[in-house]
UniProtKB/TrEMBL annotation:
Protein name: GDSL esterase/lipase
GO biological process: lipid catabolic process
Keywords: Hydrolase, Lipid degradation, Lipid metabolism, Signal
SUPFAM superfamilies linked: SGNH hydrolase (SSF52266)
Record flagged with keyword Translocase: no
Pfam families for this protein: Lipase_GDSL (PF00657)
Organism of origin: Platanthera zijinensis
Amino acid sequence: MAFLSALLLLLLSCCTGSQADLAYDVRPAVFVFGDSHVDSGNNNYLITSQSKANFPPNGIDFKASGGMPTGRFTNGRTIADILGEELGQPNYATPFLDPDTAGAALLNGVNYASGAGGILNKTGALYVSRLGMDLQIDYFNTSRQQLDDFVGKIEARERVNRAIFSITIGSNDFLNNYLTFISDFEPPDTFINRLMIALKAQLTRLYYLDARKVVMGSIVPIGCIPYQTSLAPVDETGCVSLPNQLAMKYNRRLRDLLSELNQLLPGANFLYANLYDLYMEIIENHQSYGFVTATDACCGDGGIHGGIVICGPATTLCGSRSEYVYWDPYHPTEAANLIVAKKLVHGDARYISPINVQQLVNI
Ligand SMILES: *[C@@H]1O[C@H](CO)[C@@H](O)[C@H](O)[C@H]1NC(C)=O
Ligand SMILES: *[C@@H]1O[C@H](CO)[C@@H](O)[C@H](O)[C@H]1NC(C)=O
């Protein structure tokens, strides 16, 4: 009897142990950086921010909140939320500024993203307060030290080495800086050079804070958002040319920068997530993906595409959210995000390179 229970204990400890190890293996933490495409509520805590989404009908399809607004700038999940789910994370990375983001919650990862934020500090100044990329990395450094205290330096480093870093930033450097009156009115190449210098320093800083697996998003087709197509003439693609051309120019430089960093920094894996082509593919073939429109905002008013007045309790709301590519004047719906995020995890080199996110996890 004693032998049997000893055996049972042995079996139990063997299997509980190995299950815990397995869970640890298949569930990397997800640290999220970026702008309103992936903000999960940081701006709720910025009192003076003019860039917020913590009111209905934002979040109307977000199951985890029962349809209540969370600060996400979409009807449901962001691409970062879906990425986390696909990687087996039981909880969405919580906002850094949420006081509950402490202790064991850090092990799932943390979200630092902020609506109106950009690569450059000045970007988004019209919206008063927001977290730019430099500040988001300062905050990650704070979490990094909290992790050291919580699990010890060795395990903290190992967890951060295995974690997936998801970065979706750069659109606001054009939409809320270069293309507005706060711009320094320099030639596009000069501006993009400045972005690359800042971004190289930022990504290198993350590397020195032990990030090794980074999924870096390209800029999305910012000329196709209802805000643009409601204001300016469109070209044969149905989108406004200049913003898309700037995005493509930036994206080519971004791809080169990531290759350079992969060469330069031993053990670094910077993936290029081709968000531009992914969303463009959906926009151009929206009917075959089951969307009725790729130009009208589901929630918003003004102009021919409802792209002038931001989504809120008093604006028009469409009936069938999953038939719209765009939720509001600036952001895609959960339905579009779902297609994009799944291709980042499982897709081929047209959309995510040099490897996909699932392969990145398995390294
Ligand atoms: C941006 O702001 C951060 C602090 O928030 C500061 O450390 C950094 O030097 C600033 N960068 C520039 C280019 O001004
Ligand atoms: C992180 O913070 C510590 C303490 O403030 C500082 O010494 C260090 O330089 C920071 N590291 C980076 C990469 O920002």
